Amino acid sequence: MKIYVVTAHNVYQGNQHSYVVGVYDNFEDAKKSIDIEEMNRGGKYECRIKDFTLNTIPEELTSD
C-alpha cells in the first residue's frame, strides 16, 4: 500500500523549518491538503509530497 506524506517548508528558511501536514493513502487528498495549507499559510510555506510503500523495509546500502 502506498502512502503519501505531505510536508510544508518555509520558503525563506528552507528545510530549517518544516513540518508534516498530513499522511494520506490517496494522492488526490494529499494534493488537496497542499492547496489548503499553502493558502492558509499565506505563501510563506511550500508543500511537497513524498510517497512511501507501507511496511516495506528500504534496501540496504552496500559498498561495492
Quick rundown:
This protein has 64 residues and is of the alpha+beta class. It is built from one helix and three strands.
Overview of the structural elements:
Strands 2-1-3 form a three-stranded antiparallel β-sheet, covered by helices on one side. It contains one helix and three strands, in the order ββαβ. With 64 residues, the protein is α+β, with helices and mostly antiparallel strands. 22% of the residues lie in helices and 45% in strands. The chain starts with a strand and ends in an 11-residue tail after the last strand. 9% of the residues are buried. The chain is flat and about 40 Å long. It has one domain (2-53).
What key phrases describe this protein's structure?
64 residues; alpha+beta; 1 helix; 3 strands
Outline the fold blueprint.
Blueprint lengths: L1 E9 L3 E11 L2 H14 L4 E9 L11
Antiparallel strand pairs: 1-2, 1-3
